[in-house]
Amino acid sequence: MNIYYVYLHLRKGTDKIFYIGKGKENRAYSNKQRNVHWNNIVNKDGGFDVIILDDKLDNNQACWFEQYLINLI
């Protein structure tokens, strides 16, 4: 099923990438089950911005694209 997407989290107001992830449904916009580093950035900046880079991917495609992007930065 092609229900996954790959997304970026940007620091609020700076457009600096601080997180790359894959998800489905509302994951990109959720602040639940995030690590301490992610929470520290979001708390300091007062939020985060989201960019969906690609969607309608299967799990393998989404995992590959996420890992590819992580390796770029």
Written overview of the protein:
A hairpin with a 5-residue loop joins strand 1 (4-11) and strand 2 (17-24). The protein has helices at 36-45, 59-72, and strands at residues 4-11, 17-24, 48-57. The model has no long low-confidence stretch (mean pLDDT 97). The longest helix has 14 residues, at 59-72. It is of the alpha+beta class and 73 residues long. It has two helices and three strands, in the order E-E-H-E-H. It starts with a strand and ends with a helix.
For the largest sheet, list the strands in their spatial order. Answer: 2-1-3
Q: What structural class is derived from the secondary structure elements?
A: alpha+beta
Figure out the total of helices.
2
Give the averaged pLDDT, no decimals.
97
Low-pLDDT parts are none
- How widely separated are the two ends? 29 Å
> What Rg is obtained from the alpha carbons, in whole angstroms?
12 Å
Shape: globular
Following the backbone from N to C, one meets helices and strands in this order, namely EEHEH
Q: Describe the biggest sheet?
A: 3 strands, antiparallel
**Number of strand elements:** 3
Q: Assign a percent range to the helix content.
A: 25-40%
**Proportion of strand residues:** 35-45%
Key traits:
alpha+beta, 2 helices, 3 strands, 73 residues
Question: In short, what is this structure?
Answer:
This protein is of the alpha+beta class. It has helices at 36-45, 59-72; strands at 4-11, 17-24, 48-57.
List the helices and strands and how they pair.
Layout: E1 4-11, E2 17-24, H1 36-45, E3 48-57, H2 59-72
Antiparallel strand pairs: 1-2, 1-3
